[in-house]
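Feature request, filed as a ticket because there's no other form

It would be nice if the structure record came with a short human-readable summary line next to the tokens. Right now we just get the raw output. Example of a typical job, pasted below so the devs can see what we mean:
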Amino acid sequence: MATAATQAPVNGEANPSSPVDLSTIPISPDGDNTDENKKPSSDRADGDQITVFHDKDNFNVKHPLMHKWTLWFTKPSSGKGDNWNDLLKEVITFNSVEEFWGVYNNIAPVSELAQKSDYHLFKEGVRPEWEDQQNKHGGKWSFSFKDKRIPIDELWLHVMLAAIGETLEEEGDGEVMGVVVNVRKGFYRIGVWTRTIGKSIPGGGDGDVAGGKGRSMDKGRDVLLNIGRKFKEVLKLTSADDVEFSGHTDSAHSGSTRAKAKFKV
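Raw output as currently delivered:
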């Protein structure tokens, strides 16, 4: 995986401008670690760099992410006309690999959530809603798993790691807003939300291509298709499985999250 960011620590913090390969971070703090300096706390000299994987209580080094991320949770509706804003809860915002694992290891896994529950992991300042200013011109890639015996917890973890590690898009694309997992009767659905649907955002200035500004239609389409292909790889799907992209506006007009697909990969 690609980027969280770190350099030699300064005052216990790392420089967030330089990327570090996330594959050097174990799948869980209890897993194998490639850090050759890992050693029992009793053998450490004062001043050693200690990550959360060495000592979860006394670590002095963090690996900052390129962006801050916020975890949201949608609790199941009571079926009595609940307001969406009352069901959607902001859980926590974090900005380092260590903080991510601290959150992940202390929330319920997807496989244990009730039906009609959702997790949303979005960049800080972006609400997981179609109407959000940064989402309203965008769309999402999604795939539904009809067999609920799949390893949904592992798949969702890898999608989150791909998002916070910035590996779902190329540097400067500025498209990925967040990732979502939905728990429904008979299926799980995982999605990646993007800022655009492959064309420039109205009012975008020339020269700034992040989020589609100044891009040609062909370039915008290529950027989205690349995200779709990477998303499909993370989900470990076969060539026979189609990951579909639809626009939020189309979904809103159709009254469904399953609007007609604009693209498939």
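Something like this underneath would help us a lot:
The beta strands are 3-5, 19-21, 64-74, 88-96, 117-123, 139-145, 176-184, 187-194, 244-247, 263-264.
The longest strand covers residues 64-74.
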